Amino acid sequence: MDLNIFNVLDELEDMIDNSKRVLGKVLINEEALLEYIDKIRTLLPEEIHQAKWLSKERERLLQDAHQESERILAETQEEVKRMSDESEVARLAQESAEEIIAQAKRLSMEIKSGAADYADDILNRLENNISQSLTVISQARDELNQMK
User: Which residue in 69, 110, 121, 141 has its CB near the most CB atoms, within 10 A?
Assistant: First the structure.
């Protein structure tokens, strides 16, 4: 059985929906509820681990983008140096090299920005999922405490 936090929360919600109701209150088997809370606790560290991995992956993508931009800049500078030996060709090469450098810088910024946006989006979705899970847990505990 594939247990992830959302499956456990769905099961918990089903248990609540299918429980007996008395005077507007839901009667829930305490042992079953505690089992679901334990399952959620067990699964949360995996979600947190995934968030850490995504953060590291984001850093790796940014580092790769930086290295690629440095490589492109170095190649461009070498090309400029090689071409600068001829007068008219050197002038044209200088213009071309400057344009290539500007393009490389723009590409580098786009790669970095895209990687950062992607990682931020993934982390935001994970944060929302965890927040929703914690809200459901808090509501379930509030309902349980109201039954005392």
Answer: 69
